[in-house]
């Protein structure tokens, strides 16, 4: 992926030298043209066309912000409810992600999810220990959300 | 134009202050370290982010000054706050702080 971005920059500079005009606009036009060229030659690269990953990263960022908002509404409900009838607990969550940065991202995402907080990662990095603020209420719903998170992260890293 | 901008800024600011206040209430009211951490690491994060966003919008829309440092501050808080919450609760667990009324607890069996 980094190689494709570098190549795209190189093509943009090539365009600037062909045009003999060295400013931001020419660079931008050259970058767009390079993007089209790279898209046309995508089957010669080992990795996917890189714009797809950029879109996946943008999607993940938006997911982060949405989850932060939902989490706050949820916590607000728990705090401002007159009766304190929550049932907190720690449950283990098996994960499929492999590399360190994927797991870090997933842990951060889960911490910002409604009603969950990551407490520990097991030594073999296959289980996350998650503290939920309301176990019977949340557990099923959260499983689904987490599947979508893992999928979104895999979409970026694959 | 200025009037709508002012309304948006006021809404962001009040929402941020309200969330920070709610986080403070949560820290007082909830029963144990972990549940308090939920309140502190989520509500306070979004509260401070909203206050900073209102500050950024005020200087950009009313005074005409684009302050990129405030945007960087928002990004840094967004990245570091969940890590801080995670580390505090992990340190609490490893030093043997008990949970309140527990329902499920897998951690104890597997580790330690």
From TrEMBL, chain A:
Taxonomic lineage of the native organism: Bacteria, Bacillati, Bacillota, Bacilli, Bacillales
Listed transmembrane segments: 12-41, 53-73
InterPro entries: Cation_antiport_E
GO cellular component: plasma membrane
A molecular function GO annotation: antiporter activity
UniProt entry tagged with the keyword Magnesium: no
Organism: Bacillus aerolatus
Record NCBIfam families: PRK12651.1-3 (NF009292)
Family indicated by similarity: Belongs to the CPA3 antiporters (TC 2.A.63) subunit E family.
PANTHER family xrefs: NA(+)/H(+) ANTIPORTER SUBUNIT E1, NA(+)_H(+) ANTIPORTER SUBUNIT E1
Protein name: Na+/H+ antiporter subunit E
Subcellular location: Cell membrane
Keyword Cell membrane: yes
Keywords attached to this entry: Antiport, Cell membrane, Membrane, Transmembrane, Transmembrane helix, Transport
Topological type in the membrane: Multi-pass membrane protein
Automatic annotation (TrEMBL), chain B:
Record carries keyword Transport: yes
Major localization listed first in the record, in broad terms: membrane
Membrane topology: Multi-pass membrane protein
Compartments where located: Membrane
Keywords annotated in UniProt: Antiport, Membrane, Transmembrane, Transmembrane helix, Transport
CC terms in the record's Gene Ontology section: membrane
One Gene Ontology MF term: sodium:proton antiporter activity
Membrane-spanning residues: 7-28, 40-61, 70-93
Domain of life: Bacteria
Family of this protein: Belongs to the CPA3 antiporters (TC 2.A.63) subunit G family.
NCBIfam families found in the cross-reference section: CPA3_mnhG_phaG (TIGR01300), PRK12674.1-2 (NF009314)
Protein name: Na+/H+ antiporter subunit G
Organism this protein belongs to: Bacillus aerolatus
């Amino acid at each position: 992926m980094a190689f494709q971005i570098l190549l795209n920059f190189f093509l943009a500079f090539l365009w600037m030298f062909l045009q003999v005009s060295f400013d931001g606009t020419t660079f931008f036009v050259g970058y767009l043209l390079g993007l089209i060229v790279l898209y046309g030659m995508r089957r010669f690269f080992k990795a996917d066309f890189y714009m797809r990953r950029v879109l996946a990263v943008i999607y993940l960022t938006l997911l982060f912000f949405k989850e932060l908002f939902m989490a706050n509404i949820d916590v607000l409900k728990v705090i401002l409810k007159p009766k304190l009838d929550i049932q907190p607990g720690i449950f283990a969550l098996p994960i499929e992600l492999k590399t360190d940065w994927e797991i870090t991202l997933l842990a951060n995402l889960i911490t910002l999810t409604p009603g969950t907080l990551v407490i520990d990662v097991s030594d073999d990095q296959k289980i996350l220990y998650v503290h939920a603020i309301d176990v019977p209420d949340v557990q099923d719903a959260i499983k689904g959300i987490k599947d979508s998170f893992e999928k979104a992260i895999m979409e970026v890293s694959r | 134009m200025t009037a709508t901008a002012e309304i948006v800024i006021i809404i962001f600011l009040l929402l941020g202050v309200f969330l920070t206040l709610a986080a403070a209430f949560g820290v007082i009211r909830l029963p144990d370290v972990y549940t308090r951490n939920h309140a502190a690491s989520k509500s306070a994060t979004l509260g401070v982010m909203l206050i900073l966003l209102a500050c950024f919008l005020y200087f950009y829309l009313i005074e005409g000054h684009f302050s990129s440092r405030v945007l960087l501050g928002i990004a840094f808080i967004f990245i570091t706050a969940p890590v801080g919450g995670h580390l505090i609760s992990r340190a609490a667990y490893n030093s043997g702080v008990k949970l309140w009324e527990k329902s499920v607890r897998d951690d104890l069996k597997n580790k330690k």
